[in-house]
Each structure stands twice: as C-alpha cells, then as structure tokens.
Amino acid sequence: MQILKRISVFCLCALIGLTSALFFACGKGENDIKINEVTHSIFYAPLYAALNLGFFEDEGLNVTLESNDGSHTSMSVLLSGNCDVALVGPETVVYSTETKDHPVVFGQLTQKDGSFIVSKEQIEDFDLDMLKGKTIIGGRAGGLPAMTLQYVIEKVAGLTIGTNKEAGEVNLRTDVQFANIATEFQTSDNEFCTLFEPTATTLQNNKAGYIVSAVGKHSGEVPYTCFVAKDSYLKANPQRAEKFLKAVYRGYKYITTEDSTKAAEALKKSFAGMTIEELKVAVEQYTLIDAWCSDPAMTKVSFDKLVEIINNATGENYNPTYATCVDTTYAENMLKNIA
Q1: Residue 18 and residue 94: Cα distance in Å, rounded?
Q2: What fold does the segment set 116-219 form as a domain?
Q3: How far is CA 303 from its chain centroid?
Q4: End-to-end CA distance of the chain
Q5: Taking 90 as the threshold, does the pLDDT of residue 236 lie above it?
Q6: Taking the domain 2-112+223-338, which CATH number applies?
Q7: pTM of the model
Q8: pLDDT tens-place string over residues 247-277
C-alpha cells in the first residue's frame, strides 16, 4: 500500500507538472504566495479572516488561494511546483518523505478533527456505541478524516469495523470521494456520515441530516491541517514563511477573540452562499471543540499521535522522523517577534 501511494502521488505530479508548471512560473512576484487548500471549509477560518481583513497585505504579501478535492491532490500540486504552500493533512508529508525536495510542515492550523458526525435521525444524546451495526461514510481511504474516524471507532470506542451488522460491527465506508459524501449520504440508506462545515450545517438546515457529535470531541488533539511547503522553498524564503504565519495568527486571534457575528462577517466574502447566521453557527461549532491552534508549531507529541493513527489505519509501519517532516523554526520565530 505504501508503494502504491507513492506511485500515485508521483504520477499525478508528473501530469500536473507537464501541463501547467510553465504557466505558474510566468509573472510571479517575489512576494506572491499561491496556496492550494485541500478543500474549502470554515474549518480554516483563520486563513480566510487573514485574507479578507487584509492581514497578508499588511505583511507585504500577495496571497492567492485555490481549492482542491483532497490532501493527496493538493500535495501533488505542491510537489509539481504549481503552488508555494499547500494546506493539507500532514499524513501526506509522511507519505512523501522520500521525495527529493521533500515537503515540510512549517505551521499547524487545526488541532482537532474538523468533521461532524451526521445522522439521518435526530439523536439527543449521541454515544459512539450507537454506531454498532450501522454504516458510516468516512471519506477516502488513506486520508486523515477516514483514518481518524477509524481510530475513534476502534481505539476510543473499542468497536469492530466490518460488515457483519448482526454482530454489531461498524461498516466504515472509505470508498466515497470527499466532495461526494453529502450526496451519497442523502441518496443511500447509510445511517451516518462525517461532514465538515459549512456542509454539515447546510444539510441540517435542509432537514437532510442532523449533527449529533464532533469527531474531534472523541479523538482529542490531532495535528489535522497544516501549512506545508517544499524544503527548498522554506530555506530560500524564511522571512516570507514567518510573515505568512503572522498573518494567519492574526486571523486566528480575530476569530477567537471577536464575537461570532464579527467573525462571521469576516468570513462572508469567502462563503457568499451562506448567511451570517449560518456562518455564526459553523464558527461556534468549531470554537466549541477548540479546533484551531493557538501555537502553530507542531509538537512531537502531536506528530507521534498522527503516525499512530496512520499506522493503525493502513497496517503499515511508517516511522518518519519528526525533524524530517516538521520545521518549527518559522512558527517559533514568528511568535517570538510578536510577543
């Protein structure tokens, strides 16, 4: 499985690189930063606040943002040279350690699983045991959402994953692409799924599903979404990386210290299809589970838990070194300079 993952990443990198690398290089200023995000979600609120409130401009940076449909795809875009920074699950860094110019985590954005357990039926006091004999759609195999959910089901709840419903096994589906989970949930007879905001709230408002719990509530702290760049890029642009993190940190402080209405207003430009009230609910959901990092420097304890989750889900024995995958220099310097 480990070999197949690497082959798929490299093949996709080659394809993307051949078609668009030349276009990306043209006309790029020294203070331009192109970000490719794994998906577009209020889970990344501090980033959008930084964009919409002009915090990047304050640092002299011109930041553009593109969305994708999975960490594996965003990582491929990064490795092929078609973005400067990827906002992805750090599992993709673990999978790519043997890449020549390997990706490095230089800042952590979220510290909890950002998905919510959504049920077809309203449940007042949800318990993980209620998953026994049921099916839950958990996203793409190999992605952090599905792997963390598996960790919660097996290691936290002590349940067994399988298709024998009579024996109380939990059927964890990992055959649905991230962007298609909501549609598959609504059109299938599956009892549960996991969704990020704003999709979870939208489904609930449409009476198509009900948020019953947060995966992050059960998983505890996990280095879930991080800012990643190539090793060569970070070494060539240390001040740019620090300025970038400073702007995001200001976004974090705004979202977490202002009231939810002001936070929602700061996000509105990034979510034109949502009302202020819907945005408020989503922000409050993520605030409740303490989703965002107050310190963007990933700790070794968090990194080791990530590797544990990956190995539990894949059956592999990944043993990457923290120093290879993570560089906290930029986050530490940023925090030191604003203290």
Answers
A1: 25
A2: D-Maltodextrin-Binding Protein; domain 2 (3.40.190)
A3: 15
A4: 45
A5: yes
A6: 3.40.190.10
A7: 0.87
A8: 999 999 999 999 999 999 999 999 998 899 9
